[in-house]
Design goal:
Layout: H1 3-27, E1 76-80, E2 84-89, E3 94-104, E4 110-113, E5 124-125, E6 137-140, E7 144-150, E8 155-163, E9 174-183, E10 189-202, E11 214-219, E12 223-228, E13 250-257, E14 259-263, E15 267-273, E16 278-291, E17 294-310, E18 315-326, H2 329-332, H3 349-369, H4 372-414, H5 419-432, H6 442-460, E19 480-484, E20 500-503, H7 504-519, H8 526-532, H9 535-543, H10 548-569, H11 582-586
Antiparallel strand pairs: 1-2, 2-3, 3-4, 5-10, 6-7, 7-8, 8-9, 9-18, 10-17, 11-12, 11-14, 13-16, 14-15, 15-18, 16-17, 19-20
Helix pairs in contact: 1-8, 3-4, 3-6, 4-5, 4-10, 7-9, 7-10
Length: 587
C-alpha cells in the first residue's frame, strides 16, 4: 500500500483502540461516595413529611460505612400475580424488590428489579440523596397491600399498592400506587414539593456497556432525555484537557415530565404520575458486587412532584402507575403515556419506525417458526429478497464500471496534473456509456437505515434473552465458545481481563465479508480499494462483543450477497456501448 492508505488505516485502528479504552474508563473509575452510602438509609429519624422543594442541594462527601441499626423490625408483605412477585417493606412503605417470575437470570434464579442498596420503589423522600425511611403500619388484602403512618405534624399518610390487569391477561407488570395525605392537625400544611423513589437498575453482566444503565424521562414535545452511568464517572479529558472529577449525583428541574424511569438493557422501573406531571429528576450511580472481584454498574433514581397546601381536615390524593418488568415493546405500546419510548430506539423518527417494524415482524416470524435464530434467518431472507432486484442492478453497474476502468485510468494518467479537468472528462465518459458512477451504492444507502435499525432493535429486544440457536446459548449476548486464558491483556474487545474469548459468529461474519469483497468488481481509486480491504477487520473489531443475533443476521446477509454475486457472474459479461446523445436521438 502507499503512504496515504497506511495513514488512513492507522488512524482507524488508533480511533478504535481509543474508543475501547474510553469504554473501559467509563466502566472502571467509580464516582465518589456521597453522604449516605448504600446501606445507610436511616429508618429511625423522623423527617419532614414532604420536601420543602425538589431543588438541587449540595451533598457533602463521606466515607461509605454501615448504617445505624434500625429501631424497628422490618416487615415484608408479598403481592403476586402470574408474572411478578412484589416484596413490600414497612421501611418507607414501598416495593423493596420485584421478582420477575418468567425471566430467568444466572444460576436459574429469577430476575430481580431494584436493589437493597437503594430506596424502595414508591418511597416518599425529602431529599433522595439523604433518604430517610420511617416505619409504616402495613396491612395486606388478597389483592392489595396498604401502608399507613401519622407524622408529628398531624399528617396521616396512606399508601395502597395493587396490580392493574393487562388487556390480554399476560405481561402483568403494571402496579398502581395510590397516596392519600390527610391533615388531621389544627394548622394548615404547606409542601413545596416531594420526591418519589424509582428504585434502581443495574447492568445484567459485568461486561455490559455503560450506556445500557441509565435514568430516562419523557416530556411531551421535547421527547426522551437521560443520563447513563458513564455520566457520573471521572474523565481525564481529551489528551488531558478539561478533566472532570466524578459526579456524586444528578439532579435537574424539568417542565412536566410524563414519566421517569431507571433502566438497563432489557428491564425497567418506570413511574407515571397520573394526577400531576413530574417537575424534577434525580439519579445516583453505585456499584453492586457480582463476585470474583467483579462489579455491576447500577443507577437509582427519583422523580420530583409539585407542592400543595392542606387545610385542617383536607386530603391530598396522588396516583402513580409503575411498570416494573421487561421492556416488551408490544406491552409498553399499549400503555397510555408514551411508555414505549423507554425502548430508546432512536431520536430519529425514521430509525425508530424501522426498529418498531422489524421487532414486530421478528416476533411474528418467531410465532410462526418457534425459534428466534431461525426467525432472524427468515427476516434476513425477506430483506434480501426484497432488495434482490435492486442489488442485481447495482451489480451490473459495478461490472460495467470495472469494464470501464482502463479508460478511466487513461484519463487519470492524462490529466493527473489537472484534477478539475480530469473529473469533467470522467463524467463525460460515464455519460457516453450510460453508466451511473454511484449506481452500485444505492442498495448500500437503502440498507444503512435497515442495518442500524436491526443493530438497535437486536440489542434491545428482551425476547432474545436466553433464546438458543445451535451452539448459541443466548442470542442477546456474544456466542463465547471458549476463553483462551492468559490473553486478557488484549484491550480490543472490552472484555474483563480473564482471557481472550473466541466468538464464532463474528469470526464467520468477518470471513464472509472478506469473501464478499474478494468477489466484488474492482472499481474506484486503488488507494480506496486498499483501505476498504481492512473494512472487514475493522467491522469485526467493532462487532466482536455485540449480541450474537446481530452477527447471525450479518453473516446470513453476506452469504446471500455471495450467492447473488455468483448468480450475476454466470451472466454474460457487460459490453461497453456508447449511448446516443439527446441531440442525435431527436434527429
Amino acid at each position: 500500500m502507499d503512504r496515504t492508505a497506511w495513514i488512513v488505516v492507522a488512524l482507524c485502528v488508533i480511533g478504535l483502540v481509543l474508543w475501547e479504552f474510553y469504554l473501559a474508563k467509563q466502566m472502571g473509575p467509580r464516582p465518589a461516595p456521597v453522604s449516605v452510602a448504600p446501606g445507610r438509609l436511616s429508618p429511625t429519624a423522623t423527617p419532614a413529611i414532604l420536601a420543602p422543594s425538589p431543588s438541587p442541594t449540595p451533598v457533602a462527601e463521606t466515607s461509605p460505612g454501615v448504617g445505624p441499626t434500625p429501631s424497628f423490625a422490618e416487615k415484608i408483605e408479598t403481592l403476586r400475580n402470574s408474572d411478578v412477585e412484589l416484596h413490600l417493606t414497612n421501611r418507607g412503605g414501598g416495593i423493596k424488590e420485584a421478582l420477575l417470575l418468567k425471566q430467568i437470570a444466572e444460576k436459574g434464579q429469577r430476575v430481580a428489579v431494584n436493589s437493597d442498596q437503594s430506596a424502595p420503589i414508591g418511597a416518599i423522600l425529602e431529599q433522595p440523596a439523604t433518604p430517610i425511611l420511617p416505619e409504616f403500619t402495613v396491612s395486606a388484602q388478597s389483592d392489595s397491600v396498604q401502608f399507613e403512618r401519622t407524622a408529628a405534624e398531624g399528617i396521616a399518610i396512606r399508601k395502597k399498592f395493587f396490580f392493574e390487569k393487562s388487556p390480554e391477561n399476560k405481561d402483568n407488570y403494571v402496579i398502581e400506587m395510590d397516596v392519600d395525605l390527610e391533615n388531621r392537625g389544627d394548622k394548615p400544611y404547606q409542601s413545596g414539593g416531594y420526591f418519589v423513589a424509582l428504585g434502581s437498575a443495574a447492568s445484567i453482566h459485568p461486561r455490559d456497556y455503560p450506556y445500557y444503565s441509565k435514568l430516562l424521562w419523557y416530556t411531551a414535545g421535547k421527547g426522551l432525555n437521560g443520563k447513563d452511568v458513564g455520566w457520573f464517572a471521572a474523565s481525564p479529558g481529551f489528551f488531558g484537557l478539561n478533566p472532570r472529577a466524578a459526579r456524586p449525583f444528578y439532579q435537574e428541574n424539568i417542565a412536566g415530565a410524563e414519566w421517569v424511569a431507571v433502566t438497563n438493557q432489557f428491564f425497567t422501573t418506570l413511574m407515571v404520575p397520573l394526577t400531576a406531571k413530574a417537575t424534577a429528576v434525580w439519579g445516583r450511580r453505585f456499584d453492586i458486587d457480582h463476585g470474583q472481584d467483579q462489579k455491576l454498574n447500577a443507577i437509582e433514581g427519583a422523580l420530583g412532584m409539585p407542592g400543595f397546601q392542606l387545610q385542617p381536615g383536607q386530603t391530598y390524593d396522588a396516583r402513580f402507575e409503575i411498570y416494573a418488568g421487561p421492556k416488551i415493546y408490544n406491552r409498553l405500546a399499549q400503555l397510555a403515556h408514551n411508555e414505549a419510548e423507554v425502548m430508546d430506539f432512536s431520536s430519529f423518527t425514521i430509525l425508530k419506525v424501522i426498529c418498531q417494524l422489524l421487532l414486530n415482524f421478528l416476533n411474528l416470524l418467531h410465532h410462526w417458526l418457534g425459534n428466534y435464530g431461525v426467525a432472524i434467518l427468515a427476516l434476513t431472507t425477506v430483506i434480501k429478497l426484497t432488495l434482490w432486484p435492486l442489488q442485481n442492478q447495482a451489480n451490473r453497474s459495478m461490472r460495467k464500471m470495472a469494464a470501464l476502468s482502463p479508460k478511466v485510468q487513461e484519463l487519470k494518467d492524462k490529466y493527473k496534473d489537472d484534477p478539475t479537468r480530469m473529473n469533467q472528462e470522467m463524467m463525460k465518459l460515464y455519460k457516453q456509456y450510460g453508466i451511473n458512477p454511484v449506481g452500485g451504492c444505492l442498495p448500500m444507502v437503502i440498507q444503512i437505515p435497515i442495518f442500524f435499525g436491526l443493530f438497535t432493535m437486536l440489542g434491545r429486544a428482551v425476547e432474545l434473552r436466553n433464546a438458543t440457536f445451535l451452539w448459541v446459548k443466548d442470542l442477546s449476548q456474544p456466542d463465547i465458545l471458549l476463553v483462551i486464558p492468559g490473553m486478557g491483556w488484549i484491550p480490543f474487545f472490552g472484555i474483563p481481563s480473564v482471557g481472550l474469548p473466541i466468538n464464532i459468529l463474528p469470526i464467520l461474519m468477518g470471513a464472509t465479508q472478506i469473501w464478499l469483497m474478494a468477489m466484488t468488481p474492482k472499481t474506484g481509486d486503488p488507494t480506496q480499494r486498499r483501505v476498504m480491504m481492512f473494512t472487514p477487520l475493522i467491522f469485526l473489531f467493532i462487532c466482536y462483543n455485540f449480541a450474537a443475533a446481530l452477527a447471525l443476521y450479518y453473516t446470513a446477509q453476506n452469504l446471500f450477497s455471495i450467492l447473488q454475486f455468483y448468480q450475476n457472474k454466470r451472466q454474460p459479461p457487460p459490453t461497453l456501448e456508447k449511448v446516443a446523445s439527446a441531440g442525435k436521438r431527436k434527429r
